[in-house]
Write a structure and sequence with these properties.
5 helices; two-stranded antiparallel sheet; single chain
Length: about 170
């Protein structure tokens, strides 16, 4: 019989509060009731860095509305039986990392449509459906706004790049 020295996942679960669309997307992307991030992921690095002993004044880690259960892996550097608390700043850093990953996934899937005009509405609804996000106006509006901001930044970068290239091609007097 083989004994596993370092189990992949501890029994520890951290409940992270996220916006509804983000919580639904994360649960869908990672499947299961408890989200488990891939080994050597940025999210696990943030968890490892932020884990510490629970302060006496800390609120209990309990499930709630819009809270996603995240499984804490075992780390060689920290014993999760004793270091099992994630501070507010660490939770915020983890939520920002998850949101950044969401924005990348959204942009990667939708940028190729260029200016999609009226079809944007249907494409975003379809994207939400395929990524496990509940079809509500609030979720749609939030995701559409994220997409539009990202598209505007992309367009501005392209415009600047074209302007720079045009200036380089003009002969110097």
């Amino acid at each position: 019989m083989t004994k596993i020295l370092f189990p992949i996942m501890s029994e520890l679960v951290i409940y992270l509060k996220l916006d509804p669309y983000l919580a639904q997307w994360l649960a869908h992307e990672h499947g299961g009731e408890v989200v488990e991030f891939p080994k050597n992921s940025t999210e696990n690095d943030i968890i490892e860095l932020g884990l510490m002993k629970k302060p006496y004044f800390a609120a209990p880690n309990e499930p709630g509305k819009d809270k996603v259960p995240i499984g804490v892996p075992c780390f060689k550097s920290k014993n999760v039986r004793f270091n099992n608390y994630l501070s507010h700043k660490s939770r915020r850093a983890l939520a920002q990392c998850i949101r950044a990953r969401f924005v990348v996934a959204l942009w990667k899937d939708l940028y190729k449509f260029g200016y999609i005009g009226r079809r944007k509405q249907d494409l975003i609804w379809a994207w939400m459906e395929t990524h496990g996000i509940e079809a509500t106006e609030t979720n749609w509006n939030t995701i559409a706004k994220i997409y539009l901001r990202k598209r505007n930044v992309y367009r501005e970068q392209k415009r600047r790049e074209e302007k720079r290239l045009a200036e380089m091609q003009q002969p110097n007097p």
